[in-house]
Amino acid sequence: MATVDGRFCMDRWEAATVLSDGSEHSPFQLIGTTRVTAISREHVVPQAHVSAEDAERACKRAGKQLCTSQQWHDACKGSRAPYRAFPYGTTERKEACNTHRPQHPTVLVFGAQLSDVISLNDPRLNQQPNTVALTGEFQDCVTPEGIHDLHGNLLEWVMGPDRPLLLGGHYVDGKLHGPGCHYVTGGHNGKYADYTTGFRCCAPQGRHAKDAGLPDAESEAGSVMAPALASAITPAPFPADAVARDPAGMRGFYDASGELPKLTPPPYEPADARCPADMVFVEGARCTIPFQKCLRWLPRLSVGQKIACAEFESPSVCTGDHRSMRYCIDRYEYTPPGYSLPLTHVNYAEAANLCSAMNKRLCYEEEWEFACEGPDALPFPYGYVRDGKRCNHDFPEEQLVTTPDHFVDHRVKADALPGCKSPFGVYNMVGNVDEWTTRLNMEPGHRAVLRSGWWLIGRNRCRVATTNHNETYANMQTKFKYCKNTR
Question: What are phi and psi of 356, to 5 degrees?
Fold first, then answer.
């Protein structure tokens, strides 16, 4: 295994498996009810045709655990800025990893590309030439810590925040669901397996898995569908002088793996109201393309570029069509029962699931913009002149961190800034914390867009967005508002 950031250990190679007598289990066969143990070994064929449940049990028998998505991404991209896009660096080298095999293996075996689960688990597929590679065969596909094949060769099962995920791409495709370390497939349950599915194991730094409080190696209570596995990893410690302001054991600013709240839909009050009691009714004509002229800029630069406009010319000029909008949106940033501050460290998929539990949905980008800017297409929810104190942003750099990678929690309560209110009465549409929205007409994996900006000097206005994070990204500033169709 290799140590990652001094926090945990990860297998250097994709897992192979052995039987209880130590003999090799065929990497070309489904595991099924066979009891196998994971091994990490160079220059062997890695185990494919493995489900997430099989992978977890195989890791536990080895005294380890199935890696979490956070561990996997920390190993692939690095856990500190500047982050890598690929295991070996920021720019793709096409031949470095096993991601560009010329033909789909079902074509080689059956003469046509097939997608049914029986064909995809034919043991002949990965025995064809130019398919799966031996572990470590692609010598340049390695992280600085010496972890091989995180990108390509086989997909790798990990435990995401609420369900198993497949990361990293495989030998036929390394970019359909995101490039390099950002490749993620979330559409399969924990029982799914095919010729592309593999895994590797992780373990807490310096401790055997049993000593880390993990479930017993043969206990089914630790299946990949159980949230206990995701929370078994100790998160990075926060600074000694920091104060945890979220409920203990729950997801929050310093706890990326805490439990998510259990939610129930809010009532309609009165019973015939157009929107639930905690939402605002939004109606009007949205300008599709406003022209907003900057009169003066903030003095701060980023990579030689002006970073934010301090004042816009009034009024905004609409140069596009107007489109009618009518929907409901949360009045405040979501603050669950028992919390005093908005919930953060939530990824796009988790936010969508929480919305569904409330009989709501994530806002579409256009809905979020219109709720922020109103019919006059204001640059800021309150007008044309930027005011960081009004909306909790523009903190100077020396107030952002105490030590490298340890941000100060500058969140304020959802209703703490009455001046940070949009024309529709929606609070904190800029500043405080980032908000997930959905980009329409995009394939899964490419729908997630962050709006609002947080307490840095950055976006913090109605018509800007961050699109460089995928749907599994979560950090101490990511949260959401709900939207809902009106009745």
Answer: -60, -40
Residue 229 phi, psi dihedral angles, 5° rounding: -65, -45
Structural domains in the chain, CATH included, are 1-234 (3.90.1580), 279-484 (3.90.1580.10)
326 with 367: CB under 8 angstroms?
no
Strands 448-451 and 434-438: antiparallel
pLDDT at 117: 85
| Alpha-carbon gap, residue 408 to 241, rounded angstroms | 10
Q: What's the rounded mean pLDDT across residues 2-10? A: 91
At residue 368 the predicted structure's pLDDT band, cuts being 50, 70 and 90, is very high
Distances (CA, A) of 108 to 29, 82, 126, 127: 18, 41, 10, 10
**Are 184 and 472 in contact, with CB atoms under 8 Å apart?**
yes
Q: Which of 330, 408, 334, 417 is nearest to 367 (CA)?
A: 330
Place of tokens 């998160």: 235
Exposure string (b/e) for 212-233, b if CB count within 10 Å is 16 or more?
Answer: bebbebeeeebbbbeeebbbbb
Model-wide pTM > 0.70: no
Is pLDDT above 70 for 304?
Answer: no
- Distances from the Cα of 340 to the Cα of 80, 245, 483, angstroms: 29, 8, 22
- CA-wise closest residue to 465 among 447, 483, 482: 447
